[in-house]
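Q: What structure does this chain adopt?
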Amino acid sequence: MKIIFLALSVMLSAGLAAQKQDKDPEISAYVKLVSKDSLKANVEKLVSFGTRHTMSSTTDDRKGIGAARNWVLSKFRNYAQNAGGRMEVFLQNEDLEPDGKRINKATNLGNAIAILKGTDPTDKRIIIISGHLDSRVSDVLNATDFAPGANDDASGVAAVIEAARVLSKSKFPISILFVAVSGEEQGLLGAKMLADKAKEDQWIIEAVLNNDMIGNNGFDAPKNEKIPKLRVFSEGLSAFDTEINAAKIRNLGLENDGNARQLARYVKEIGEKYVKNIEIKLIYRNDRFLRGGDHTPFVNHGFTAIRLTDYYENYDHQHQDVRTENNKKFGDLIEFMDFDYLKTNTTVNVAVLANLAKSTPKPENVLMDVKELSNTTKLTWEKPASGEVKGYHVLYRETDRSVWTHKIFTTETSYIVPLSKDNFIFAVQSVSASGNESLPVIPKVSR
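A:
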């Protein structure tokens, strides 16, 4: 018994120490490159198009959604020059007919896309970072009035463009897709078009980071709040899990451990590791009440997708006609933007993208042995199909904890943890040769 307690004490200490790992200097360098001035210039340019409503002009050179998406493509093409031929830029589009809902005229729907191709031809994974290009006023069908959309969602598109700039020279083993989708305000149409394409072509999507309204904090946060907050929304169970494995998931107590929740925890861990003065709040919902985000079409296809957004929303500054009433300004104007906050949130995205892009695939066939009653837990797994693995992290937390509390590093493909499987939740993640972690994998039960 003393030996078990001694082993437990040593293991706990090792787990705590594992969480204080050194930062990857390459990622730290990317973090430093994120520019507040660049982000502000991007938002100002997007606002200058007057309206970016999905049904606004696609032929005017200076105004409307067409001019805006062409400008985004031009920014991507400029940064593609840094990528040595590995960045492809294109417009994904389709013609829509009136649907009797939020499309009342023939409309060309277009997503501005840049894909930075990975260097490992055997690793087909793709990470997606997105923001929505379109804007609106109070009337969702009004495609002509001034709709600046500074925070909703020029902030998210500015972050996508800045991430493309910062990471354009990188040489990651896997691919990153940068996209400014259209049609969000009309029913997530552009995101659905891209998610349908991904499903049809069987893309291996590792993660989707959807950024929608990430630039308005300083005007609405309590004055005594010292550290700003960023919300990360994630679903608990996918529709596929609910249909197929609901009873098993309930029996194992894994309702809070779907793939999106693992990604959300990963964003919190990596974001707070590399970025100062941000508290990343995990919101255990797919999205806000009565609202929708561009991650949802991916979620509905079974992909791992989350939404990053302001902690404090100001409804006077979104989905509003620009006007002044009783000395109060309404509308999503640039004067209500907090560019320090936008820079911080963009940096979180860059750090997560880089760390995940430098990781190997997740370990395969992760199992937890439950054949015997025991106060220890045996985990086994197989190495990823591609990539050079330095080792693995065994993660654990008590069942009522929201994030992983301990990590144990091992170079083996099995580990016996001196803790009861009844009291803890476990996972395993690969660690690449460069020290970057994959997303965690919850073990299946082996009887």
